[in-house]
Design brief:
The chain is an alpha+beta fold and 182 residues long. It has a four-stranded antiparallel β-sheet with strand order 2-3-1-4. Strands 6-7-5-8 form a four-stranded antiparallel β-sheet. Helix 1 crosses helix 2. The protein is globular. InterPro entries: DUF1697.
Length: 182
């Protein structure tokens, strides 16, 4: 059975969106996932599934999570090979643009449109850059995330609804769960 990596959006934020790792694991198994593992309490899940597409896995997980929690949990799913590609691209961008204080990667269910990607690439914000590559948008920040103007820009928001992880978290996920990918 294929392996997938799911990234859950906006869980464990505030009092009303609690979704502990054990509950995530149980709901993932209820959706048909096997060999389920979680990393951190931010919604990083590895699973195997009989499903043959990331869209079908995401749909199954979102339905199970909503049934378990009583609120929507947008979920973005990738294959291990796709996660490895995103991490490799992050490394290449770090090499290309030099060290940054923060490198966040927004992950999307569908690739942003070419027009949205072009618009965000054209943004000129000192010390901040966004590079869209497929279903990922890399935000390279020389400052702090809380003061970043990029994330408040209408061009960035036009990329769509996604979920973000740091480069460090995605690198760890790839090391833990994608070791067999060449």
């Amino acid at each position: 059975m294929p392996t997938y990596i799911a990234f859950l959006r906006a869980i464990n934020l505030g009092a009303t969106r609690k979704f502990p790792k054990d509950a995530v694991k149980q709901a993932t198994e209820a959706a048909g996932g096997t060999d389920v593992e979680t990393y951190l309490n931010t919604g990083n899940v590895r699973l195997t599934s009989a499903r043959r597409s990331v869209a079908a896995v995401a749909r199954d997980l979102e339905q199970a999570y909503a049934a378990d929690r009583g609120f929507e949990v947008p979920t973005v799913v990738f294959t291990p090979a796709e996660v490895v590609e995103i991490v490799a691209r992050a490394t290449a961008l770090a090499d290309q643009y030099g060290p940054v204080k923060n490198h966040y990667i927004a992950l999307y269910a569908d690739a942003p449109s070419a027009a949205a990607a072009t618009a965000v690439h054209a943004l000129e914000v000192e010390g901040e850059r966004c590079v869209v590559d497929g279903r990922a948008a890399h935000a390279l920040l020389h400052g702090d995330i809380h003061s970043a103007k990029l994330f408040r820009a209408k061009q960035f928001n036009a990329l769509g609804v996604g979920t973000s992880r740091t480069r460090a978290v995605l690198t760890t996920v790839a090391e833990k769960w994608c070791a067999d990918v060449e």
